[in-house]
Amino acid sequence: MYSVLMSGTDTAGKLIEATQELLWERGYVGTSPRAIQQRAGAGQGSMYHHFGGKPDLARAAVRKSAEEMRATADADLSCEGSARQRVRAYLSRERSVLRGCRIGGLAQDPDVVADPALRAPLQETFDWLRSRLAEVLEEGKNGGEFGSAFDPAGTAATVVAVVQGGYVLARSAGDPGPFHEAVDGLLRLLDAHAAEPGSPA
Amino acid sequence: MYSVLMSGTDTAGKLIEATQELLWERGYVGTSPRAIQQRAGAGQGSMYHHFGGKPDLARAAVRKSAEEMRATADADLSCEGSARQRVRAYLSRERSVLRGCRIGGLAQDPDVVADPALRAPLQETFDWLRSRLAEVLEEGKNGGEFGSAFDPAGTAATVVAVVQGGYVLARSAGDPGPFHEAVDGLLRLLDAHAAEPGSPA
DNA sequence: GTCTATATATAGATAGAC
DNA sequence: GTCTATCTATATATAGAC
User: Fold this and answer.
1) What confidence score (pLDDT) does residue A192 get?
2) What per-residue confidence (pLDDT) applies to B200?
3) Residue A116, CB, strand C, below 7 Å
4) Longest C-alpha distance within chain B, in Å?
5) What is the DSSP letter of A146?
6) How far is CA A105 from the centre of its chain?
């Protein structure tokens, strides 16, 4: 198995990176081996030497994208500040909204959800993200940032869904606006759950 | 132009309905004219007699699906009850969660967002839905259901995003669970915005 | 209106030379 | 490891008979 830790300077690495890009832009069904080879600057022979075919290459590319996405999210959620500030940092990070989510976008593809090896990185990424957000929100609740009725796990699922759904609304509108409206609406709802001023910090 | 009001008993209607189903199941890129003809029980000649080709047929099918989706949502949001009850009715309606949204799912398809005539029904549907939800929430706020800091328009965008994102999480997990967790988390956040008991009904 | 024949391009992969 | 040739199936459509 090709190590995901290598950078894309060798042929196999370039093929993986080209596949990552194309899966993001065109989805799995819309990505052809030919397009991958052209973008990677590699020939047919190279691709089928290093990988068993399109599904095999796609599995490597999706795993790598999932790892990168987790690292990015973890950086936001592990920064300095209160739980509320860290969730806000995650939600307000600059994104190329109209491109959508590299991982979430693949969930629409029937051939991806039908192949356990292709779907697994999606499931693992969102499971991890929800649980990491729940952890942060739980810390905030324990620290007195939220009231006693506040539900960290449920709220974590809502936060992730707003981001993924925001992408859908933005792409449908051809405009990043709806993404930001959905996120801002969520942040206001979260503020309403804030504990009374003067609660334990 | 083929009237969207006719039922699918004639050939053109059957072609449109077959296309609606396939777009939902396989997306635009993943749907071939051949598959449409087979599902509709129509031949090549029929399809190209009634429609100019795949894009033309897809435009008719997407417009029809969008109309149907708006009618369904409007039924929930126009029912009896408080604003909170109507939004809850919309969010808690029974859905085939793992199939995803017929309209939102198409936003992932690059050929859909690139074609203004194909993307327009998506944009119009979500614009309408957000504005209809904002209307309901505004009525609720005016009726004293929510506090003065409550933002109907922002919350409406959040509600729509949670549903669309919930589909993404569920399909990624191969399990409807995450959809319902995201929706439940949202409903709890909304409850936190409730006005004090005793406010004007 | 519907059918069959035909046409070009691409998808996705294998074989074997170098 | 990489290249070129080759292969079968499908995508997407046009032409013209009936």
Assistant:
1) 84
2) 47
3) no
4) 68
5) B
6) 9
Give the closest residue to A162 by CA, choosing from B99, B186, B43.
B186
pLDDT for res A91: 98
Residue of B nearest to A105 (CA): B108
Is 50 exceeded by the pLDDT of residue A201? no
Q: How many secondary structure helices (H) and strands (E) does chain B include? A: 9, 0
Backbone angles phi and psi of B128, in degrees to 5? -60, -45
Q: Are B65 and B20 in contact (CB under 8 A)?
A: yes
Measuring CA to CA, which residue among B110, B130, B162, B161 is closest to residue A179? Answer: B161
| The pLDDT value given to residue A194 | 81
Is A158–B186 a contact, with Cβ atoms under 8 angstroms apart?
yes
Residue-range domains of chain A with CATH:
11-192 (1.10.357.10)
Burial A24-47 (b: 16+ CB within 10 A, else e): bbbbbbbbebebbbebbebeeebb
Interface of A with B in 161-180 (CB under 8 A): 161-169, 171-174, 178-179
Q: Measure the CA–CA gap between A164 and A122, rounded to whole angstroms.
A: 12
Tens digit of each residue's pLDDT (9 = 90 or more) over B86-122: 999 999 999 999 999 999 999 999 999 999 999 999 9
Question: What radius of gyration, in Å, describes the C-alpha atoms of chain B?
Answer: 19
Q: Alpha-carbon distance A104 to A65, whole Å?
A: 11
Contact B82, B143 (CB under 8 A): yes
Tell me, what amino acid is at A72?
Answer: T
Taking the C-alpha atoms of residue B196 and residue A109, their distance in angstroms, rounded to an integer, is 45
Distance B47 CA to D17 C1' (A): 17
What kind and span of H or E run contains B165? helix B152-173
Segment A64-71 long-range contacts (CB within 8 Å, at least 24 positions apart):
A64/A4, A64/A16, A64/A20, A65/A20, A65/A23, A65/A24, A65/A102, A65/A103, A65/A121, A66/A103, A66/A121, A66/A122, A66/A124, A66/A125, A67/A4, A69/A101, A69/A102, A69/A103, A69/A125, A70/A125, A70/A128, A70/A129
Q: pLDDT of B131-155, one tens digit each?
A: 999 999 999 999 999 999 999 999 9
